[in-house]
Amino acid sequence: MTLEVSTPGLATTFQDLGRHGYQHWGVPVGGPMDEVSHRLANALFGNAPDAPVLEITLLGPTLHCHGRCRLALTGADLGAPLNGQPWPLGYTRTLREGDHVSFGRRRSGARAYLAVAGGFRLEQVLSSRTTNLRGGFGGWHGRRLEKGDLLPLMGSFANPPRLLIPDSLAHVISAAPLRLVPGRYWTTFTGAAQTALHESPFTVTPQSDRMSYRLQGHTLQLAAPRECLSEAVAFGTVQAPPDGQPIVLMADRQTTGRYPCIAQVAQVAQVAQVAQVAQVAQVAQVDLPCLAQCVPGDVLAFTFIGLAEAQRLDLARERLLAALERDTSVA
């Protein structure tokens, strides 16, 4: 059983939950930009949460089925029909020999996630099947999909679990401000920069990708020149380079950086530790999926919450996801 790539789309790659445990060797974690949508796509079939899925960016591929399989689609609404018929997000569909999935006009969000019952058959590299585009390894030959690729499927014909995705997890991009947690170097920036961070809008620029989002807005300046040693960064670290225009590090971020940080999104297990090294603020982990679904031209706003509240929100969502995965997991 395979899926044949007739057209590859703009940037379609395989992602699991990331390549953990190798950052001390300079190997990025990678993984999905929108982890919640990734995990929901697998949960619809009872797949393991870290099973690789296709991350589809803005303009999706056309895939032809050879054999029989079941697919699930979550994340952004990129106008995906099955054999020309609408396919709502959050639902599974059965494909038979000759059926095809294509993507049309984007309606909302930036990234959709396509899972297959049983998973895709991929080799692990450094304990992960996630694609490292800059390194050229992992995923499907370390690259984006290309025309003519035949993607092998593990295959499972067990009845999928009856899963209703809660509204609180069916996100894309909202107008709500992204929430920040101040860090210990907050006072190294000017009062104007501090005020701008939670009162001024910032626009996502076209110079944005899986490695980082570059924002345009009020200049964020230090109160005095400061030399920073390179230190660990995480998903959502927002750096302020010399020009003062913030850079938000995303899934394919580097492992270290020396620009002063303006925000940080960390795993709940890391958030207290990262708070000790973040130089201005942290973005609450719970808002990362919405950030990941932004496209160039989107306007972002920020607000502040306490560290305890950021952890509470993240833990509440993690418990909900874990409960869904536990209830739908296969033996």
Automatic annotation (TrEMBL):
The keyword Glycoprotein does not apply. InterPro entries: CT_A_B, Cyclophilin-like_dom_sf, PxpC. GO terms for molecular function: ATP binding; hydrolase activity. Residues 24-320 form the Carboxyltransferase domain. Keywords: ATP-binding, Hydrolase, Nucleotide-binding. It comes from the Bacteria. NCBIfam families: urea_amlyse_rel. SMART domains: AHS2 (SM00797). This is Biotin-dependent carboxylase uncharacterized domain-containing protein. Pfam families: CT_A_B. Gene3D superfamilies: Cyclophilin-like. It comes from Pseudomonas oryzihabitans.
